[in-house]
């Protein structure tokens, strides 16, 4: 096990990274409207951060690790970039520029450093404890999803109660100032308390030559692709659900930004508790069986989010929210199992490569979910989730033999 403080700082990092993506969701539409942009633009503002993290940020961090740059130095550089990106996001209102918002969210995305946690855990945590540690790591994501709308609602109430509504500080820009402050505090904690891994055994991007007569083991196998699909679908669902719920609550149910934030925070709090509770059963459920069961549960739960007609009575709202909570909870556990399985089912020399691929698909999933949540209606929203998790369950059942721990796993 790694030093407790270093592991705790990585838990805090994933919390901040997800919080940074989601805290702007309740106000993104208002911010876009203030700058004369459309609803699609607000989805783009949310999607850009995880998209650029997957396309450029993670490959850049991976290359830095390959060339021997210490992980602590990478985290410090990336967190400093996140501070600047959030300040730029907050200043976009003063500049009245849509391009500045896009540039700011791009900078935040590139500097998110999502790769640090999984790689550090893969280096320092033994295979027997890795599932539980990664479940806790993933649970911090669920906690961030819960806290983001709550903090956004509280920040909006704060500026409105104090009647602060100028171009620099208002309900749209305060999330940027708030995240810049949190990242700055975190930067100081990393400088003084984070410990790098002592001489980590970093695997080569190209595997060693097999012995004579021994076939070379393949990296891209159906089992690994199934796990990567699980890692892609879960963040797609999480981000899509949040963006879609905000749109539904504010435009169909006519709730205010603060009310939407409180309701969404309560919903995501239930999801976080479910994700945390699931870590207690990991010693009793085999990872591949857990992936299959939770995929089926997510598929069944998603059927409750179908809505027929245009009116929303109390019963239809209750059924939708029930399906929303169950689907989100099951989806979070699906990602936990995907997190845990990816480094276990590949040969040790491929462990870092697998972690890299896993983080890329997670970020692309978050980016896609934000954009889809902004444009989907209730029918396409529900149908996409039912179909996606049904396909995942079928693949998990078909390739269950490839979802067991590798004989040389470390």
From TrEMBL:
<feature type="transmembrane region" description="Helical">
    <location>
        <begin position="74"/>
        <end position="94"/>
    </location>
</feature>
<keyword id="KW-0812">Transmembrane</keyword>
<feature type="signal peptide">
    <location>
        <begin position="1"/>
        <end position="23"/>
    </location>
</feature>
<keyword id="KW-0472">Membrane</keyword>
<protein>
    <submittedName>
        <fullName>SPX domain-containing membrane protein At4g22990</fullName>
    </submittedName>
</protein>
<keyword id="KW-0732">Signal</keyword>
<feature type="transmembrane region" description="Helical">
    <location>
        <begin position="100"/>
        <end position="122"/>
    </location>
</feature>
<dbReference type="InterPro" id="IPR036259">
    <property type="entry name" value="MFS_trans_sf"/>
</dbReference>
<feature type="transmembrane region" description="Helical">
    <location>
        <begin position="290"/>
        <end position="309"/>
    </location>
</feature>
<keyword id="KW-1133">Transmembrane helix</keyword>
<feature type="transmembrane region" description="Helical">
    <location>
        <begin position="224"/>
        <end position="246"/>
    </location>
</feature>
<feature type="transmembrane region" description="Helical">
    <location>
        <begin position="252"/>
        <end position="278"/>
    </location>
</feature>
<feature type="transmembrane region" description="Helical">
    <location>
        <begin position="134"/>
        <end position="154"/>
    </location>
</feature>
<feature type="transmembrane region" description="Helical">
    <location>
        <begin position="382"/>
        <end position="403"/>
    </location>
</feature>
<feature type="transmembrane region" description="Helical">
    <location>
        <begin position="315"/>
        <end position="334"/>
    </location>
</feature>
<feature type="transmembrane region" description="Helical">
    <location>
        <begin position="40"/>
        <end position="62"/>
    </location>
</feature>
<dbReference type="InterPro" id="IPR011701">
    <property type="entry name" value="MFS"/>
</dbReference>
<dbReference type="InterPro" id="IPR051068">
    <property type="entry name" value="MFS_Domain-Containing_Protein"/>
</dbReference>
<feature type="transmembrane region" description="Helical">
    <location>
        <begin position="355"/>
        <end position="376"/>
    </location>
</feature>
<dbReference type="Pfam" id="PF07690">
    <property type="entry name" value="MFS_1"/>
</dbReference>
<feature type="transmembrane region" description="Helical">
    <location>
        <begin position="174"/>
        <end position="194"/>
    </location>
</feature>
